[in-house]
Amino acid sequence: MDTQKVSGRFPKVGDESGLAPADRFYREEVQLANRNRGMPLEGLRYPVTPAGMHYLLIHFDIPYVDAGQWRLEIGGLVNNPLTLTLDDIMKRPAVSIPVTMECAGNGRALLDPRPVSQPWLLEAISTAEWTGTPLRGILKEAGLRDEAIEILFTGLDRGVQGEEVQYYERSLNVQDATREEVLLAYAMNGRPLEPQHGYPLRLLVPGWYGMTNVKWLHSINAIAETFQGYQMTGSYRYSHSADDSGDPVSLIRVRSLMVPPGIPDFVTRIRLMEAGEVTLMGRAWAGLLRVARVEISTDGGEIWSEASLAEPVSPYAWREWTYNWKAQTGRYILCVRATDSEGTVQPMAQHWSHQGMGNNITQRVDVIVE
Ligand SMILES: Nc1nc2c(c(=O)[nH]1)N[C@H]1C(S)=C(S)[C@@H](COP(=O)(O)O)O[C@H]1N2
Ligand SMILES: [Mo]
User: Fold this and answer.
1) What ligand has the least distance to the C-alpha of 356?
2) What domains sit in the chain, N to C, each tagged with a CATH number?
3) Partner of 54 for a Cys bridge, out of 126, 156, 226, 228, CB 3.0 to 4.6 A?
């Protein structure tokens, strides 16, 4: 929809294939990092992340929306196209669920070489309680036709990516789109969405990486083919090189993170702690799977010990883990890794991918105990 090729206008950042050496960052990456900030890892303390601490990822600009003028259009292969106001949507059956959301690019900046894009280290993770109406009720009312194989979700935000002018839009197959937990969400932690989180309405697809949750939702179209837009075919792919189309990114992979213990050095963030007993804590999640175990290492990943697990905050949200550590004077690399209910364990060295997607490498926290 309204796409246009604009070749040769914008300089390439990084080498010919858009890569950069580890630890040397470009001004353009700093610019992106200031717009798209992460959740400080001490935010892992909260079962539901305070809204102002929730990570942000916005490809283009945050659109300015007047909710009084705004409408949601539901069309394409449906028998009764609908035009709904925000009030119409809020009058429908409502569900609230805590959902852990993670950007598919989380961990990208730990790769070597690094794909030049939003330079996440580990902080593109948060959990919010989202309120909305199940999408499948609306699709039922619109009379989804049998020829439809995908549902296309289009946001109001427009920009250029991959030399293509586009609205931010992504599709889901009908089966995934009509799962009961898929919502059209208008509230976050009990309040209307903030502009940066998609006001007035966003898609919410629990268990999937962040890009699926289309913000500033403007139209929903049932289509008879697989959508070929840039955010499906050009981005969010597990690819090996610039020419490899790779596989699509979908569900969130197993991961755990810890609240860095002690106090930080301002610039390096290396931790300083007093010797003695300390309870390490953090959270773990695994998309639509369960977290089966969490293990801790205090020696950079040689010896592992079992952490204790609390119940998940919801079927679609992270669970807390804790571990009691008798810290003795010395220098430590603390690691935490989780295993999902299918037995997949987080890697110590990340499998490299050209766009830096789905990086669930084991966290390492540098600690000095005195
Ligand atoms: N319309 C629109 N929706 C979007 C995006 C976007 O740029 N435009 N970014 C996506 C990505 S990549 C992520 S990770 C999540 C982030 O949601 P948040 O900013 O509310 O945390 O929104 C997704 N939805
Ligand atoms: Mo993302």
Assistant:
1) 2
2) 22-248 (3.90.420.10), 255-369 (2.60.40.650)
3) 126
